[in-house]
Amino acid sequence: MMNNWKLxxxxxxxxxxxxxxxxxxxxxxxxxxxxxLMKGGINVLEVTLRTAAAMQIIExxxxxxxxxxxxxxxxxxxxxxxxVTDAGAKFAISPGLTADLLEAGREGTIPLIPGVSNISDLxxxxxAGYDHLKFFPAEAAGGVKALxxxxxxxxxxxxxxxxxxxxxxxxxxxxxKNVKCVGGxxxxxxxxxxxxxxxxxxxxxxxxxxxxKA
Length: 214
Fold this sequence. Notes:
By secondary structure, the chain is α/β, with parallel strands linked by helices. It has one domain: Alpha-Beta Barrel (TIM Barrel), CATH 3.20.20. The protein contains 10 helices and 9 strands. A 6-stranded parallel β-sheet has the order 5-4-3-2-1-9. It has a 3-stranded parallel β-sheet with strand order 6-7-8. The longest helix has 16 residues, at about 200-214. The model is unreliable at about 1-5 (pLDDT under 50).
C-alpha cells in the first residue's frame, strides 16, 4: 500500500482512462462494487459524498481493499477534506474551488483535484499550484471543444472531465492531449447495483478499458 503523502494527482490520473463516479447508498454494497470494478481492470474509485453512508464506505474500502485507489468526490470544504483523509481516502475531488479549499489541499496529506468549469477558476487553481484538475460539468461547460480551446493557452494543465460523459462520448475526450482520464457513472449503473448484479459492473469496466485503448 502506498503512503498517502507520496501519492500525487499525476499518480491518480495515470492509473487508467476511466474513473467511476460512485453514489453508493449501502455500506454492504461497497466491497462487492469495488471488487467488481477492479476485476474489470479499474482500480481508481471515486465515492461521492452524496449519501449518508459515504464516509463509512470510503473507510471500509480503504481498510479491506488497500490495493484500491479509493477517493472521495464532492468534497467542498476544509472540514470534508480532513474527514475523508481520516477515513482513509487516497485522494479527494471537488466539483469547484474556493481559496480555503485550495489552501487546505496544499496543507493536506492526500492529493486534492479541484474542479473548474471556466478559465478564471483554472487560473486560480494554477496560481495555487494545481495543474491536475477536474473539468465539471464537462458537457454543460462546453465539452470537447472547450477543453481543446483551453489546451492552447494552458498546455501544462491536464484534466479529468466529468459530467455528461458516457460510453458514446468518452473516447472523444480521451483523444485530447490535455485529458488523461474521464469520470463517469456508466460503469456502475444503479439498476445493476440494486439487483446486486456485480458481473455487469465487471463487464462494463472491461469494455470501457478495452474501447479506450482501441
